[in-house]
Amino acid sequence: MISAEETIAGLHDSLSLRRRVRSVVQLCGAGAVVALVGVLWLTEDRLPARAQVGFAALLLVGLGVMARAVYVLRQHGHLFARDRVIAGWIASGFAVLLAIGLALAGHGRLGLLFVPAALAYLLFTHLAKRRLERR
Amino acid sequence: MESAWVAVVVRAQVGDREAVAELVRGWHEPVWGYVRHMLGRADLADDVSQEVWLAVVRGLPRLKEPERFAAWLFTIARRSVVNQLRQRYAEQPHVDVDEEPDPADHVIERIDVRRLLGGVPVMEREVLVLFHLEDLSLEECAEVLGVPVGTVKSRLYRARRLLREEAGS
């Protein structure tokens, strides 16, 4: 009979916070790059063909990284409450970076949409965690 | 389920990895035993119980009612067992019996149940394992099996009869 300790060892990968956080960082980072490049591509006039090819390549790579991160997160199952709070902080950090990037590119107002959304998610995760801890 | 376990489940849902390990230590043997009795092979029970715990870790954050952890856990275990048994698992008609489980009937020593289970058909074996060996309530058995409590009673009734026949043979 397999022992409980062996079973726990077999769950190590699924429970690994580092692996989950790495996937969240990849998802948010790639999402920010995709959003930034996408906005620039859609709003910049008269982009040279070489720049458009570069943007398309960046978008493809970004979408590929996002898809892989989503797959890995799904494989590990749903995030625990504490992990979701960490994901909220990561998403907020990338939303701020995205907003700065968009502001530098002359689309500051657009960037302001992402930050409140990320902060709202962060607040939601905090409240959900606190609700669970009170049980 | 004891309230102490509810606290451990909640801690695990928050993200306390040690609480997850505690759950595995506390519930590994019942799950393994259930799977072993249903599949009849220890090596398969090792693989399937590991699969069950992976599914538990994946789904635990979404468990709405921690106090129903035991039923939820055995529902997952049952799903894995059914997947394994799908080839040889045949639906069998059930007999509805309104009467409560007979107290005289349940004087079945665990050791006897374990010894005789192999000769009992899968559906009846399952309800015997859950009710007599894993101490799940009728309601929890019904939840795990996805049938009404009345059906659990009728299966228990039939299972005990089969067990008696098995003991007499």
What can you tell me about this protein's structure?
Chain A is mainly α. In chain A, 86% of the residues lie in helices and 0% in strands. Chain A has one domain. With 169 residues, chain B is mainly α. Chain B has two domains: 3-85, Rna Polymerase Sigma Factor, Chain: A, CATH 1.10.1740; 110-168, Arc Repressor Mutant, subunit A (Orthogonal Bundle). In chain B, 69% of the residues lie in helices and 0% in strands. Chain B contains eight helices and no strands. In chain B, helix 1 (3-14) packs across helix 2 (17-39), helix 2 (17-39) crosses helix 6 (122-133) and helix 7 (138-145) crosses helix 8 (149-168). Mean pLDDT of chain B is 81; it is low at 101-107. The chains are: A mainly alpha (135), B mainly alpha (169). Chains A and B meet through helix 1, helix 5 and helix 6 of A and helix 1, helix 2 and helix 3 of B. Chain B: This is Sigma-70 family RNA polymerase sigma factor. Chain B: InterPro entries: RNA_pol_sigma-70-like (IPR039425), RNA_pol_sigma-70_dom (IPR014284), RNA_pol_sigma70_r2 (IPR007627), RNA_pol_sigma70_r4_t2 (IPR013249), RNA_pol_sigma_r2 (IPR013325), RNA_pol_sigma_r3/r4-like (IPR013324), WH-like_DNA-bd_sf (IPR036388). Chain B: One of its GO terms (biological process) is DNA-templated transcription initiation.
Oligomeric organization of the protein chains: heterodimer
* Biggest β-sheet description of chain A: none
Low-confidence parts of chain B, pLDDT < 50 over ≥5 residues? 101-107
Helix/strand-derived category of chain B reads mainly alpha
| Fraction in beta strands of chain A | under 5%
Protein name (chain B): Sigma-70 family RNA polymerase sigma factor
Domain RNA polymerase sigma-70 region (chain B): 23-88
Domain RNA polymerase sigma factor 70 region 4 type (chain B): 112-163
Pfam family, one (chain B): Sigma70_r4_2
